[in-house]
């Protein structure tokens, strides 16, 4: 199979690569319920040595710079209660944590979750967190620019490998809320 974006040596439908995914991501792909069929989610093998964005796009395709998204875990606090959420923004932008995210969570304060919290709560590797397979009940804030892409590159749950996912599939994830202005320059 040829990857819909980028220049990858190995690409296959994610349901055929469940053994390459962390357990929560594999479970989410196996139990996929969206209107976009699960076999349109593509797993590509990548070398973790080339994870840095500049090196990654040099190796796998310059078009990926504007078709890649980061998924970060944020923590909102209000009255001693902490709530976690995931934010998916284009890799050329940053998450508006203290504006859009804080308001969406109804929090007094919002910040990026620690690495230990992000990996411990998601069951995914740091640097590979993906919006697919997040804990039940988490809000998943997806920037409108990400949802509008025909395909977007996101993590696979591991540092090795990525997922190519139709933007509309990300907008249909459980807990997904598509937001304008979530990613800012």
From TrEMBL:
Pfam families named among the record's database cross-references: tRNA_edit
Q: Can you give the residue ranges of the YbaK/aminoacyl-tRNA synthetase-associated domain?
A: 67-172
| Domain of life, source organism | Bacteria
Q: Which InterPro entries does the annotation name?
A: YbaK/aa-tRNA-synt-asso_dom_sf (IPR036754), YbaK/aa-tRNA-synth-assoc-dom (IPR007214)
Name this protein carries in UniProt: YbaK/EbsC family protein
| Species for this entry | Streptomyces pyxinicus
| Organism taxonomic ancestry | Bacteria, Bacillati, Actinomycetota, Actinomycetes, Kitasatosporales
């Amino acid at each position: 199979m040829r990857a819909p974006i980028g220049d990858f040596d190995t690409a296959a439908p994610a349901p055929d690569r469940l053994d390459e995914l962390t357990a929560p991501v594999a479970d989410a792909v196996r139990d996929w319920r969206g209107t976009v069929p699960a076999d349109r989610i593509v797993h590509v093998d990548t070398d973790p040595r080339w994870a840095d964005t500049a090196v990654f796009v040099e190796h796998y395709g310059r078009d990926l710079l504007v078709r890649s998204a980061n998924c970060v875990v944020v923590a909102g606090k209000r009255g001693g209660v902490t709530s976690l959420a995931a934010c998916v923004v284009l890799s050329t932008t940053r998450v508006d944590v203290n504006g859009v995210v804080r308001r969406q969570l109804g929090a007094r304060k919002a910040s990026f979750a620690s690495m230990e919290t992000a990996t411990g709560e998601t069951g995914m590797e740091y640097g590979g967190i993906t919006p697919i397979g997040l804990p039940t009940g988490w809000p998943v804030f997806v920037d409108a620019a990400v949802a509008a892409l025909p395909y977007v590159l996101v993590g696979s749950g591991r540092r090795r490998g990525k997922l190519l996912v139709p933007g509309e599939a990300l907008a249909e994830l459980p807990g997904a809320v598509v937001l304008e202005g979530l990613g800012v320059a």
